[in-house]
Amino acid sequence: MKVLLADDDTFHVELTTYALRRCGIQVISVTDGQQALRRFERDKPDLVLLDVTLPKVDGYEVCRRIRDRSSTPVIMLTARSTDDDVIRGLHLGADDYVPKPFSPRQLVARMEAAMRRCRTSALERSLGLVQVGGLEIDVDSHQVKKDGEVVSLTPIEFRILHLLAMNPGRVIPFARLLEYGWGINSDDPSLIRSHVYQIRRKLKLPKWGPGSIRSVSGVGYSLVLDR
Question: Closest by alpha carbon to 81, among 105, 111, 66, 101?
Answer without folding.
Answer: 101
